Amino acid sequence: MPLEGIRVLEFAHAMAGPFCGGLLADFGAEVIKVERRGSGDSLRRMGPVGAESLWFTINGRNKKSVEVDLSDSGDNAYVKALAASSDVIVENYRPGAMESFGLGWEDVQKLNPRTIMLRISGFGRGGPYSDRPGFGKIAESFSGATNITGYPDGPPVHPGYSLADLNSGMFGAWGIMLALFERERSGEGQMIDLGLYDGLFRMIEWQVPFYDKLGIDAQRNGASFPFEGAFVTEICPASDGAFVVVSAATTTTIENLIAFLRSEGEYTVEASDSREASVALRRWVSTRTADEAIKILSDVGVVTDRVYRPSDLAVDPHIAARGSLVSVETEEYGTVRMPAPVPRLSRTPGQIKSPAPKLGQDNNKIEL
Fold it and tell me: Are residues 296 and 148 in the same domain?
């Protein structure tokens, strides 16, 4: 596997750091999760009532677990020995926590100058907000993402999943791969400083330039982009209670959509107007079932599909054909279907070899 032979020490809880570690573990890295004695990762207790550990079963897959008390001298020495033998350290503790255990960046460099250390925190290191506490929803708001999510006549809304945390996990894994690649040339490790807002701020790359140069202070615009005239992206309720998503994101697809709506008598404005097109589209879709609307729109060159629920994804033939769900045997839940490793490599694909470990199951089993 691509990362076989790379040892990752994960001092992380909940989402951002553990998701990063999980991405690396899917492709063969040996990921050793260092967990607090007696309680472990807080994600072990998150999820629906009665199934709190199911989320962790997925998130912790392919990892090992050691249970320690970092304030205990013996445990601390053991973890430092693990750090000295590791290629990568991932941590998302509050600022200063790793230093208090003698595992800050300067300490890690002394243990092993080849080690790469990813440090995820709410606002990153340096700057007046560095010591502020920060969870994912705070980062989503600070990045500008929350401001542009929702409808013009309503308040901003958060997405129903851990967007900033997962995004940070992906950018963290990207940073680690860059540092591993550079280490092949220099022989030296380096620290990666990642704020939870950084990745989203990078992705919404247009927001500050559009404000600086065009005076556009982007606001919520429903399912459409927060500035007019770019695209027609709309989510439309159909007559059967399902929702249809339409993305006219090129000149051709916008022209196809407006021409079709004209032919149906729904669009009567002389010029092309994305807002008028969205209103006309919602009106037209509301009188048809989702399947009817999708077929008719697809036949005239409009890119469209339904809004999928988990119950749809669970039985979808495309998900099945591509192997997007992988069955994993677990002690607690039996067979659990979970997302397959991404991306898909043709020669050395990722694998799921085990569900999440029991707390401390690898104590005294790892070679130093």
Answer: no
